[in-house]
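Design a sequence for this backbone.
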């Protein structure tokens, strides 16, 4: 391993809460009378902030909402989502992910999370990784969401390493763009695997051990 630290996105990399996000946004959309919010729309919400995700929903509405109303809608969705997160458990952590993380830790690497989600601490606790990572940079400590590199730069700072010594692991295009603009080498998994700007392509999580 030529890196001293690895910064992981959370959702879609360490675990998956995509279905919970989709169900919560769809429930909000239906409350607003929007019947045609679908999974394709949900794909546009990947890797971006809560307010940016709300824009995707409201683009399907003829109604104009004030900034205050938008904040209330975003909080309403988050309330529904957080209730759904209570269903998560260590069973939602894939064996391949857990064994790979354990091996990386034994190799002496610094491991961090870089996620735009404000629910990151709660999710990590639910899946049994509440105290596993050396640092967690998330939506609670940043002002700009991906593709801005702020969250990754903050994570690198928290583990005391420069960007060139860290690998960023992402599943979203916006996350890869954030990593690249921050001066990091990027590894893409899932959707981001075949993204043209991805540096290293992962077929599975444990491929990290081959780098």
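Sequence:
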């Amino acid at each position: 391993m030529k890196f001293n630290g690895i910064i992981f996105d959370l959702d879609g990399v360490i675990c998956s809460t995509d279905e919970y996000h989709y169900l919560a946004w769809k429930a909000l959309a239906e409350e607003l009378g929007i019947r045609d919010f679908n999974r394709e729309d949900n794909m546009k919400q990947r890797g971006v902030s809560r307010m940016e995700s709300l824009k995707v929903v409201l683009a399907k509405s003829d109604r104009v909402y004030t900034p205050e109303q938008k904040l209330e809608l975003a909080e309403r969705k988050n309330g529904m989502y957080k209730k759904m997160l209570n269903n998560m458990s260590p069973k939602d952590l894939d064996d391949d992910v857990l064994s790979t993380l354990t091996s990386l830790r034994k190799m002496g690497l610094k491991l961090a999370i870089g996620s735009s989600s404000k629910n990151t601490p709660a999710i990590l606790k639910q899946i049994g990784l509440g105290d596993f990572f050396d640092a967690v940079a998330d939506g609670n400590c940043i002002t700009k969401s991906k593709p801005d590199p702020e969250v990754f730069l903050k994570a690198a700072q928290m583990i005391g390493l420069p960007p060139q010594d860290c690998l960023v692991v992402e599943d979203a295009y916006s996350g890869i763009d954030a990593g690249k603009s921050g001066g990091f080498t990027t590894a893409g998994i899932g959707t981001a695997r075949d993204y043209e700007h991805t540096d290293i392509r992962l077929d599975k999580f444990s491929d990290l051990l081959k780098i």
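The longest strand covers residues 110-114.
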